[in-house]
Amino acid sequence: MTLTKNVGKMDRNIRLVAGGMFVFAALLFSSMMLKLIMTLVGLVLLATGATGVCPAYMPLKVNTIKDGEA
Predict the structure, then answer these.
(1) How many Å apart are CA 53 and CA 70, to the nearest integer?
(2) Structurally, how many domains does the chain consist of?
(3) Residue 69 lies in a domain
(4) Which domain holds residue 40?
(5) What is residue 60's predicted lDDT score, i.e. its pLDDT?
(6) b or e along 19-39 (b: 16 or more beta carbons within 10 Å of the residue's beta carbon)?
């Protein structure tokens, strides 16, 4: 199964930075539940930013790739 890329360059960069910040921020909290949630959110953002595919965009038919981006 091939997933079509639907995350543009700016969107990807924002996801990568935000994901890194979430994972880093998780290190600062003492609550294990908060650490887990922050880490999972960060990893999802990093994964969607790295692959350029956001499964949540698919049913909504959202595509942030601009013309000329590949």
Answers:
(1) 13
(2) 1
(3) no
(4) 9-60
(5) 96
(6) beebbeebeeeeeeeebeebb
What separation in angstroms does the CA of 18 have from each of 24, 40, 46, 58?
10, 12, 8, 21
The residue-averaged pLDDT of 28-38 equals: 95
Integer Cα distance of 14 and 43 in angstroms: 13
The span from the CA of 69 to the CA of 10, in Å, is 10
Does residue 65 form part of some domain? no
Q: Per the domain annotation, does 25 fall within a domain?
A: yes
Decide if 2 is inside a domain: no
Task: Determine the number of helices (DSSP H) and then strands (DSSP E) in the chain.
Answer: 3, 0
pLDDT at 58 over 70: yes
